[in-house]
Automatic annotation (TrEMBL), chain A:
<feature type="domain" description="Cytochrome c">
    <location>
        <begin position="44"/>
        <end position="125"/>
    </location>
</feature>
<dbReference type="GO" id="GO:0046872">
    <property type="term" value="F:metal ion binding"/>
</dbReference>
<protein>
    <submittedName>
        <fullName>Cytochrome c</fullName>
    </submittedName>
</protein>
<keyword id="KW-0408">Iron</keyword>
<dbReference type="InterPro" id="IPR036909">
    <property type="entry name" value="Cyt_c-like_dom_sf"/>
</dbReference>
<keyword id="KW-0813">Transport</keyword>
<dbReference type="Pfam" id="PF00034">
    <property type="entry name" value="Cytochrom_C"/>
</dbReference>
<dbReference type="GO" id="GO:0009055">
    <property type="term" value="F:electron transfer activity"/>
</dbReference>
<dbReference type="InterPro" id="IPR009056">
    <property type="entry name" value="Cyt_c-like_dom"/>
</dbReference>
TrEMBL record, chain B:
<feature type="transmembrane region" description="Helical">
    <location>
        <begin position="409"/>
        <end position="431"/>
    </location>
</feature>
<dbReference type="GO" id="GO:0022904">
    <property type="term" value="P:respiratory electron transport chain"/>
</dbReference>
<keyword id="KW-0812">Transmembrane</keyword>
<dbReference type="GO" id="GO:0016020">
    <property type="term" value="C:membrane"/>
</dbReference>
<dbReference type="GO" id="GO:0009060">
    <property type="term" value="P:aerobic respiration"/>
</dbReference>
<keyword id="KW-0249">Electron transport</keyword>
<dbReference type="GO" id="GO:0020037">
    <property type="term" value="F:heme binding"/>
</dbReference>
<feature type="transmembrane region" description="Helical">
    <location>
        <begin position="12"/>
        <end position="37"/>
    </location>
</feature>
<feature type="domain" description="Cytochrome oxidase subunit I profile">
    <location>
        <begin position="221"/>
        <end position="456"/>
    </location>
</feature>
Length: 228, 456
């Protein structure tokens, strides 16, 4: 068996040897990070966004790069998943987007601050994360929209905002109902009124009043009324 | 109690009990929020509760380590603490920093980096505080009559913990680099230098409780802390798989993470075999329970459950899910909370002269808190595994999955109630001991540091 001196030697050599390797690998990792294309896109906006992210302890609920708490969604790919428009509307009043659901603090960010946060999220989403977060392997592919509707093109706003909660043809969120046959149930006039202020038509509905212009409401209603 | 200045340890331990109680309260706030009852959202949003919960954990454990040092170092170096006055000033300033930080968290004042939420200006106060502590303990060791391995390992652990706090204070613009150095503090603390502290306390307790020869125990202490650093330093790599650093971290981190349980396994086997070799029947059996229990539970929580999700292939799915919370709870409890409770249980009769060992309340405290913590770990495990499959494998929306796993948090809260009942019993016993007295000095014969023919 080891003597006490040998045990001490094992401890000292092990510690110094592996500390040295660790320091060398750290040096190499930093070289890798700073020579990566992502280092060049690290703009002032992104840095300001990071400062806001830390100042408000977003990590206390969310994760980014998988680091943080697990009370709110992983945000590494949120830019890709939701798009800047949706994030912008969401950050203005988080609870309005998910009424009655898990709550997020309303931070009263300015337009510029929201822009910085979006830049920060976009930058992180574009990092090479060696396959994280993984793509779901068993995601069911459903096709419920009827074949004669495929010619209808979705308005831009629909792609940016509505799909976060609603699905059409199996693609989109499932917080709100799927909209594949919404045109059968409601006409254009009803849909327009609904989009102007959902709460007025159905108080207590989970659907928020979205900041839409009159022409966007017309486009969306026209599109939706054709989903039959 | 041989040295009057050991009394300081009591006040550190009392602070521990207070902070632990508060930590549990914030745990419940989060447990209820996860069940859908977040009525406190406007006053204590989840991120405030979370930061308070984890920072209280860190602060009470550090307070416990400091208390342990104030008890162990005089004993090991055979001299009084260098400056009693300095020790009290240091404790008070630690409390002030802690209270100010925690109040700040509720007003959105922090530096939101997981585990390092204390805002920068207060960080500097922490540094001064810890320097005071290290100076005081260091001078005690320096001027002491004896320099034992146990004392030195403990001091080296505390010193390195302080040193490793510094990388967490450098600012980085890139989230990748920020994350990289944040783990220098967090990982190298809990899977590195804190294990030195734990090893030091463990070895002190085993020497006292089992009566096995110091030379034998300290030889194994070297082997264990050697294994800890051999695996733990490069094991930091398991935090670097998916944050944007080179691919080789998957191999290095994965391999050395596989070795990490060895240090904990060695610690558990060491504690159990020393107990079996035990030449004396120390009357403070409860303290022996906590000591051996700590070594075993740290293997289960930190070693085994850590291993269970640090392989890169598994971690790809479990990274950033409740699986981490599962591992975290049992790891911190087994390795660090239990060893602090062990040294408290050991030293209280010697500090106060009241032989309140082996009473039913103490026994209940041990079993209820351990069973409760295992239950909580189980609840997190079931919720976490369900989350991984539904969210990461089947691609369901985050909030949809959270609704599905809400029910497991009822299990969590129930287990937490059992756990809390154990901690309440522990604190009840702690209060019954009363405050330390000078009369306990010299009463070594009754202190338990003697051979008794049978356990009473």
């Amino acid at each position: 068996m080891l003597t006490k001196f040998q045990a001490k030697l094992f401890f000292l050599i092990g510690t110094f040897l592996f500390s040295a390797i660790f320091l060398f690998l750290t040096f190499d990792s930093l070289r890798y990070v700073y020579s990566n294309p992502s280092a060049k896109t690290l703009s002032d906006e992104v840095i300001r966004g990071k400062a806001l992210w830390e100042k408000n302890n977003c990590m206390g609920c969310h994760t980014i790069l998988g680091e943080g708490a697990y009370y709110a969604p992983e945000l590494t790919k949120v830019y890709e998943r939701r798009g800047p428009e949706w994030i912008r509307i969401f950050l203005k009043d988080p609870q309005a987007m998910y009424p009655g659901e898990r709550k997020m603090v309303k931070y009263d960010f300015t337009e510029a601050q929201i822009g910085d946060l979006i830049a920060f999220l976009k930058w992180n989403g574009e990092l090479d994360l060696k396959g994280f977060p993984p793509k779901p392997e068993f995601k069911p592919e459903t096709q419920t929209v009827s074949a004669n509707n495929v010619s209808i093109s979705q308005p831009e706003k629909f792609k940016q905002i509505c799909v976060a909660c609603h699905a059409v043809g199996g693609a989109g969120g499932n917080v709100g109902p799927a909209l594949d046959t919404v045109g059968k149930k409601f006409d254009i006039a009803y849909l327009e009124n609904w989009l102007r202020d959902p709460q007025k038509i159905k108080p207590g509905t989970a659907m928020p009043k979205l900041p839409l212009s009159e022409s966007e409401i017309k486009d969306l209603s026209a599109y939706l009324s054709q989903l039959k | 109690m041989k040295y009057k200045s050991q009394k300081i340890a009591y006040w550190f331990f009392a602070t521990c009990m207070l902070l632990l109680s508060l930590q549990i309260v914030y745990g419940f706030i989060m447990g209820f929020a996860r069940m859908g009852f977040d009525g406190l959202h406007d006053w204590i949003p989840f991120n405030a509760a979370r930061a308070t919960h984890t920072n209280l954990l860190v602060v009470w454990l550090l307070t416990g380590f400091m208390g342990a040092a104030h008890y162990i170092i005089p004993d090991e170096s055979e001299s009084e603490i260098y400056s009693v006055r300095l020790a009290y000033i240091q404790l008070l300033s630690l409390i002030v920093v802690g209270v100010v930080s925690i109040i700040g968290f509720h007003f959105n004042v922090w530096e939101g980096r997981k585990f390092l939420e204390i805002p920068r200006p207060l960080d500097y106060l922490v540094v001064i505080n810890v320097l005071l502590f290290l100076f005081n303990i260091g001078m005690t060791v320096w001027k002491g009559k004896k320099h034992t391995t146990t004392g030195l390992v403990l001091y080296f652990g505390l010193f390195s913990a302080a040193l490793l706090y510094l990388p967490g204070m450098i600012e980085f613009n890139s989230q990748t680099v920020d994350s990289y150095f944040r783990w220098w503090v967090v990982h190298l603390w809990v899977e590195g230098v804190w294990e030195l502290i734990m090893g030091g306390i463990l070895s002190f307790l085993l020497i006292k409780l089992t009566g096995v020869d110091r030379e034998v125990i300290e030889k194994w202490l070297y082997v264990i802390v050697g294994l800890t650093f051999l695996s733990g330093i490069l094991g930091t790599g398991h935090h670097y798989y998916y944050i944007g650093v080179p691919e080789y971290w998957k191999w290095i981190g994965g391999f050395f993470s596989m070795l990490e349980p060895l240090a904990f396994l060695a610690m558990a086997m060491f504690a159990v075999s020393m107990y079996r070799k035990s030449g004396r029947n120390h009357p403070n059996t409860i303290s022996l329970y906590w000591t051996i229990g700590s070594a075993i539970m740290s293997f289960v929580g930190a070693g085994f459950l850590g291993f269970a999700h640090t392989l890169p292939q598994v971690n790809l799915y479990t990274h950033g899910t409740l699986i981490t919370a599962m591992h975290g709870h049992l790891a911190f409890w087994g390795a660090y909370a239990m060893i602090v409770l062990a040294i408290i249980t050991y030293s209280m009769p010697l500090l106060t002269g009241r032989k309140l060992w082996n009473n039913s309340i103490g026994l209940f405290a041990f079993w209820a808190s351990n069973i409760g913590m295992l239950g909580m770990t189980g609840a997190f495990a079931v919720a976490g595994i369900a989350q991984v499959y539904l969210e990461r494998k089947f691609g369901l929306d985050f909030l949809v999955v959270q609704k599905e796993i809400q029910v497991h948090f009822l299990g969590l809260v129930l287990a937490a109630l059992v756990f809390t009942s154990g901690i309440v019993a522990f604190i009840w016993n702690f209060i019954k001991f009363g405050t330390p007295t000078d009369e306990a000095v010299g009463a070594e014969a009754a202190s338990g540091d003697i051979s008794l023919s049978s356990r009473s």
